[in-house]
Write a structure and sequence with these properties.
Length: 235
């Protein structure tokens, strides 16, 4: 029950732009257990996206350790890291990042092509995933024929394509109206409660963070608060 799915020790990230060095994370320690539902808050520039990109194996820390299911990802080659990402992590972005000239269905199928899943199973699974986010009747729509909330639901279906245990979402409701934001948070809640996914979201809004069980606050590349939103055992 207390499986440490993510463990970070003394993790630092420095962006070296040539002229100046920006310390985006200052020796962070963080442990996340399998099945947690977490939000990350903090002012713009506090290091939230930097952390998410490293957690999602899209980037590497400058120093320190990142253990993903006990394996130090620092020791992996770029190719190995891509494989880990494709299998274990579903990433959702603020701006959806859908491929614009491609249907909702094909967008959801894409990670499965990289995952080398056969055409028939791919399509079947993509349809099922779209159905689960309430978009069964939108599978042949192009992204520009969908509302913001619908685009984000396609992006979530795509993130789930290879059945990752961990879902990372960087400001997933940042471009959405409040009604769509609630719908998106309800989907994340379901994924956590029903499917047992470990879900980590970045948000600026306290209302959105309140959906989760644990709120971690960043300031200037440091964790300044780590709190649980409800009593243990309460739901
Ligand atoms: N690719 C980059 N190159 C240089 N500096 C960066 C880069 N990405 C982020 N930063 C800097 O790192 C700090 C943290 O940024 P970020 O993680 O994006 O913060 P947040 O997501 O909390 O707004 C900021 O000072 C930002 O300007
Ligand atoms: Mg950010």
């Amino acid at each position: 029950m207390t499986h440490e799915i993510i463990k970070i020790e003394g993790m630092t990230k420095v962006y070296d732009t040539g002229e100046i060095q920006v310390a985006a994370l200052n020796s962070i320690d963080l442990t996340i257990h399998k099945g947690e539902f977490i939000s990350i808050m903090g002012a713009s520039g506090s290091g939230k996206s930097t952390l998410m990109n490293i957690l999602g194996c899209l980037d590497r820390p400058t120093s320190g350790h990142y253990y993903l299911e006990g394996v130090d990802v620092m020791e992996k080659s770029d190719n190995e890291l891509s494989a880990v990402r494709n299998k274990k992590i579903g990433f959702v972005f603020q701006s959806f990042n859908l491929i614009s000239r491609t249907s909702a269905l094909k967008n959801v199928e894409l990670p499965m092509i990289y995952g080398k899943i056969g055409a028939e199973e791919r399509k079947e699974r993509a349809l099922e995933l779209l159905k689960n986010v309430g978009l069964a009747d939108r599978s042949h729509h192009m992204p520009n024929e969908l509302s913001g909330g619908q685009k984000q639901r396609v992006a979530i279906a795509r993130a789930l394509a290879n059945k990752p245990q961990i879902i990372l979402a960087d400001e997933p409701t940042g471009n959405l109206d409040s009604q769509s934001s609630v719908e998106i948070m309800e989907i994340f809640t379901q994924l956590n409660r029903k499917e047992g996914n470990t879900v980590i979201i970045v948000t600026h809004e306290r209302d959105i963070a309140e959906f989760t069980d644990r709120i971690i606050t960043f300031k200037d590349g440091n964790i300044i608060r780590d709190e649980y939103t409800r009593e243990v055992g309460q739901c």
